[in-house]
Amino acid sequence: MLGALANLLVLGLVGLSGAAMAGLVARAVAGSRERQKEWHEVVTRCGLVPMKTDRWTTLLSLQAQGGPVEILAHEEAGGIQLEATVKGAPPDLADVVIRRETLKLPGTREVEIGHDVFDSAFLVQGTPRYLAALLDARTRRMLLEAGAETALSLSGGRLRAQVKWDQLARVLPLVVDLGRRLAEITDVPRSLEENVRRDPHPGVRLHSLLLLLQDYPGYPSTEEALRIAREDDSAQVRLEAARELRDVATLAGMMARDSFELAVAAARALGETRNPAAEPPLLEALARDNPALQAAAAAALGRAGSAGAVPPLLDLAESPSSPRELRRAARQAVAEIQSRLAGATPGQLSLAATDAGQLSLAPAQAGQLSIAPHAVGELTVPPPPGVRTRSGG
Predict the structure, then answer these.
(1) Per the structure, how many domains does the chain have?
(2) Domain contains 118
């Protein structure tokens, strides 16, 4: 009797277990169908066409395509792995790595775009000019938005994101838009020009301008970017444009009005012009009570100054109150001016052999400058023939 009851109990438990299992399977299949329906709705809203569904288990593998972008989705426990590939993407894309900035290993090489928030959020590797063209304000915004939702990465030409199902409707449109953006960058110089024209971050505008000057000299986009950069809100961007264009007036204005660092940089850039018109503003800077700016102006006069710049340079070189570095810069500038004068023919400057750093003149002719022997550094003008001079005393 007891055995029969036990057998009935076992059969009942087995029946209940089978029914429960069937219920679990039914619910899993129903859930899979609901997720598949959600996938179709989301990809359709993104302008994609659902292509294929593999369902060997209750976990889905899904595919959708639209234009150059193809999306693969592999369901995993607790979420879904999205992967976007782009047909016809530029070859440079295969070398690009973009991922969230975590622990940076020693020796890691990365490219910074010039946007502090983005540069601190993402590690970026690849060809600098292509990356700057790709990572314009729109693309950076999409990456930051997607990165705030999920772990997003780009490598080997594939964009990947790990999301939960409740994030799919927010993240998939960003992934699709990013994929389409990857296919759009084909004219790198033009994209860099647009960065110079429109990017809201001055660091990005400067970075793009420098890349154009370095990699695309003489291109129409580079010339247009220089024209735009001359009127930029950022003094640093204007400085680089003026330096490249050898714009003496702009550089002189920046040296007179802008911050200390920019004034020094403008002085150096004036020297690089080697333009005689740079001498007057550099002489004004030489007279300012700012040793660093004076030293920069002295070095610039060594490149762009004439013999007329020598007396004030000698004053600084021989003044006990001048800092050591300033005296050295002034002496070097005098030597450079002298070296540009052809062979010290009559009336030209030459270095005195008896006192390093001093100047003498080749045998004087009427109206030429000479160093007075009784007062080192004093300049006198010999009188014209037949004119008598009064002796001192």
Answers:
(1) 1
(2) yes
CA 14 to chain centre: 70
**Which residue type is seen at 136?**
D
Region 284-296 average pLDDT:
94
CATH number of the domain at 38, please: 3.90.1150.20
Domain that holds residue 98: 27-184
Residue 378: CB atoms within 10 Å:
11
- The model carries a pTM of 0.75
Whether 75 is covered by a domain: the verdict is yes
Is 377 a domain residue? no
C-alpha angle 101-106-110 in degrees, rounded to nearest 5: 50
pLDDT digits (tens, 9 = 90+) for 137-193: 999 999 999 888 888 899 999 999 988 888 888 888 888 899 888 888 889 999 999
CA distance to 26, 90, 149, per residue, from 174 (Å): 34, 20, 10
Length in residues, the chain: 393
Half-sphere exposure for 106 (CA within 13 Å, toward CB): 0
